Amino acid sequence: MASDARERMVRSAIILLAQHGYQGTSFSEVLSHSQAPRGSIYHHFPDGKDQLIAAAVEVAGANAVAVLDALEGLPAAGIVDGFMAMWRAVLERSEFSAGCSVLAVTVSSDSAAAVEQAGGVFRAWTTRLAELLGDAGVAEPESFATLMIAASEGAVVLARAEHDLAPFESVHRRLLAVVG
Amino acid sequence: MASDARERMVRSAIILLAQHGYQGTSFSEVLSHSQAPRGSIYHHFPDGKDQLIAAAVEVAGANAVAVLDALEGLPAAGIVDGFMAMWRAVLERSEFSAGCSVLAVTVSSDSAAAVEQAGGVFRAWTTRLAELLGDAGVAEPESFATLMIAASEGAVVLARAEHDLAPFESVHRRLLAVVG
DNA sequence: GTCTATACGAAGATAGAC
DNA sequence: GTCTATCTTCGTATAGAC
């Protein structure tokens, strides 16, 4: 299928961003990872790399929102567990070689527009998570949602750097204690 | 002074890492930022970029440990405030263009050795912070220290992406509530 | 200890054939 | 819609003069 190539490239860009950051996500890497045909880069992304990265951030953001949506109606502890399980899966499946692609764009992109877009994604996550926590009866849901996003992002980085799930699990337990 | 050049280059590398990540910290950038003479790169860093980055991570790690040391003897809330003040200063002075250079190396370096070294720095911070918190009478000091490092690192990223100190301050307040 | 010059590869991007 | 070829710029690194 022809239009499959674009989707595969975006998906590969998300993975490569999560592993090696912005500059590590080169066209060559994306093409070899996605098995997409070389001549179709500027067909699908006429504005070049910026457009590819923007698509990747958008899709990565939407993916996490979908994970959050699936947690609707759960009690607070279930929401915490579900959200942390998503990040744990990233760490385990990649053997600590991948993290959050949106965070990677924030700290390693040279494009102000890309950072802005990442900020929008973080805001969307925080807003949706706060809704769920509020429905579950958590006090000050926005404040706890912000803590949860920040702590989980940081915990993923710590686990990656230390090649150890321990700091991630420690943060997970502490978040449960706070919300309990 | 001749031997000043090396120190200036390392200092510039720390700043550039915090702003643009690993690949954004090129020799050209480091040289123009540090005003160091071009011919002295491989004099001071015969092993090239890897050696420069390693020196930057080591110094950045030691700098934060020094900040922690200065908080010795304070009550728990003072330790939280002092640690968060360090990161707040980075965000404010850079107008949200800089974050943590050790985190940046973790997520955007292509060198496994550099990531290992970053992990060692995070461990050292956590250990020292846990000591201080334990002395201040905090229960489960290691677990809270890990949460604090993770949450502060994540909060810095959120504030950068959103160009707003609000998520950072929200996390700061929540950490105080947890420890208080 | 610092300089210039340069080698070599990889990056993003464009042109034009098919 | 995909291909090959090519351009330019930038990155790291080295050689050899001063």
Overview of this structure, please?
- 2 copies of one chain form a homodimer.
- The first copy, chain A, has 180 residues and is mostly helical.
- The first copy, chain A, is 76% helix and 0% strand.
- Chain A is built from 9 helices and no strands.
- The first copy, chain A, has helices spanning 4-20, 27-34, 41-44, 49-69, 76-93, 101-108, 112-135, 141-162, 166-179.
- The radius of gyration of chain A is 17 Å and the shape is globular.
- The termini of chain A are far apart.
- The mean pLDDT of chain A is 96.
- At the A-B interface, α6, α7, α8 and α9 of A face α6, α7, α8 and α9 of B.
Helix content of chain A: over 70%
CATH topology of chain A: Tetracycline Repressor, domain 2
Instruction: Figure out the total of helices of chain A.
Output: 9
Structural class of chain A: mainly alpha
Residue fraction in strands of chain A: under 5%
On the 0 to 100 scale, the average pLDDT of chain A is: 96
State the order of secondary-structure elements of chain A, H for helix, E for strand: HHHHHHHHH
| Oligomerization status of the protein chains | homodimer
What attributes characterize this protein structure?
homodimer, 180 residues, mainly alpha, Tetracycline Repressor, domain 2, 76% helix, 0% strand, globular, DNA-binding
Question: What is the element layout, followed by pairings?
Answer:
2 copies of one chain form a homodimer.
Chain A: H1 4-20, H2 27-34, H3 41-44, H4 49-69, H5 76-93, H6 101-108, H7 112-135, H8 141-162, H9 166-179
Helix pairs in contact in A: 1-2, 1-4, 1-6, 4-7, 5-8, 5-9, 6-7, 7-8, 8-9
The structure holds a DNA duplex (18 and 18 nucleotides).
